[in-house]
Amino acid sequence: MIKLKFINGLRTKLIICFLVISIIPALIIAGLSYNNSRKFLQQDAIQRLSFVRDTKKKEVEDYLNSGLNRVSYMAQEPMAIDAMNELSQIQDIQNSNYNNIYQKYNPAFVGFVNKLEAGDILLVDSKTGNILYSTLKESDYGTNLLNGPYKNTNVAKAFENARNSSDKNFVCITDYEIYSPSNSKPIASIAAPIFKGNENIGVLIFKLGTNKIDEIVSNNNKWESLNIGESGEVVLIGSDYKARSNTRFLSSESDEKIKAAKSTILLKEIRTKGADEVLAGKTNVETYGDYHNTESIVAYTPLNIDSLKWGVLVKINQSEAYEPVNKLKIAMMFILIAAVAVIIIVSVGIASNIAKPMIKMSKVANEISMGDLNVDLPEVKRSDEIGILTNTISNMIHNLREQTKEIINVANVIASSVSQITASLTQVTSGATETSSAVSETTATVEEVKQTVYVSSEKTKNVSNSARQSLEISKAGDKATEETLEGMNSINFQMQAIAESIIVLSEQSQNISELIESVDNISEQSGILAVNASIEAAKAGDQGKGFSVVAQEIRNLAEQSKQGTKQVRNILKDIQKAASNAVMTTEKGIKLAEMGMKQASEAGNAIRKLTENINMSAQAAMQIEASSQQQLIGMDQIAIAMDGINEASVQNVDSMKQLEDAAKNLQDMGYRLKALTEKYQV
């Protein structure tokens, strides 16, 4: 886990990024430099090898062609013609004259050999094939090339070619072979016919050794002067894939024959890709394994020398050709390693400079995420983005700490306030519920009062009707009193009727008294109801303003009803008193009829007074009836208002419940906010 954290760390990532950003371009540059250097060295090696190849090709061709020309020229010299002619006349090398002829011409031939190359010149008779002259007098001297022991050698082939030619300018060369008369050394033969006039009388053969060829190939054994390095060499090969020149590394050859002969000519076989190509007549530069099985760069080209099928191969080991680039690669590796070390050191420094503040900030951020706001980020004196970020985060922590303190205080206040609001809302909701219940009860009471008022109104109508009837009766009594004066004879009957009417009036007065008592009670209850309605209207606020007006009107009506009932009660007292008097008078009238006129007169007066009182009672009853009707209308309005108040109370209860739920939610949010802020340490 720690290892993974280290790998994923900012410092490690920055170091890796710096390394990648630095090393990849360095690798690319090194790779491009290496490839360009390799290509350059390869091209340089190709150019050098091609130059040496072409140079050696020309030198060898020039040398052999020069030898061909010189032999042809020598064969046409009068001295050579004379010598051949004189020698062919003797044919016997043992003849005493032969020695004189030999001594005569030998210095000239020796001089020719010295000019061309150390070798042997043979003069062979065309007709007989006898070797009549030899500068070195080797073992082939005096033998016959047509039927002698060397008839199958390349020397004999050269002789045959020149002997059969009719061209005075003809010259030919045969390839190297191990020639026993010349100490079994490689010998090439250049032959030209000797004509006397148009007759081919003989053949001049120059037996060419390998010394001059080796000198040309190796720059007189100064291989380093060829600029082909320590592994470079130039090799001539023939059609049999065998060397026609000594190799540079002759001393390191392991073959016994080569060691014995101290030569690789005609003993070292070189079968390589370049050998196949050059003997096929192709010119090119290729890289392949040479005859040492070493990867080499080889430049090859065929030689144009008469009938010889030769090729020249110039090679250098690829490792040596690319040695500078290999050294460059090693140097680049060391430079790259040193650069990587420097980059790592610089990267660690830069990464630490960047990562340390970031690590501190990440730790502080982690502690803040855990709720600890007491952490502090030291102020850094840096003008770069890291310093700005560090100081900004430090200021942010300070501001966050102060804001969190404020939030905690606000959360505490909110939690406390919400608790108080919730408690108050609970009480208000309970009160609203109770008010709703009270309003419902009041509505029911109002309905009952309404019914009572309705009954009272009906009874008041009855009282009013009774009062009207009493008024009519009193009028009739007044008329009867007037008529009493005219007809006392019927007084007994009338008095009886009056007694009965007074009894009925007394009963009606008693009923009116009871009705007035009921109306008085209704007025008291209406007053109390008006007071309660005013209280409820005040509690209901704006919604109860209209009902407050109605309550005030009900209170006024109740007061008026109370005043009316008081007046009616007083009147009824008078009526009752008058009725009592009338009863007494009637009784006295019945008992004392004899006092008819006097008492009739008094009765008339009393009846008139009674009529007046009854008129007043009728008017009061009509007022009571009107008041009762107004009370009934007011009670209807109160009932409607109470229904509205009841509905408003129900709505208020529902609203208060919703408000209580909202307050509880707010309280829960306050608790949650408080819980969230409690985990911060400030």
UniProtKB/TrEMBL annotation:
Identify the keywords attached in UniProt to this record, alphabetized: Membrane, Transducer, Transmembrane, Transmembrane helix
This protein's name = Methyl-accepting chemotaxis protein
Q: What range does the record give for the signal peptide? A: none
Q: Which GO terms describe its cellular component?
A: membrane
**Example GO biological process:** signal transduction
Q: Where are the transmembrane segments?
A: 12-34, 330-351
Q: Which residue numbers delimit the HAMP domain?
A: 352-405
InterPro entries from the UniProt entry: HAMP_dom, MCPsignal_dom
Q: Name one Pfam family in it.
A: MCPsignal
Q: Which family does it belong to?
A: Belongs to the methyl-accepting chemotaxis (MCP) protein family.
Methyl-accepting transducer domain location:
410-646
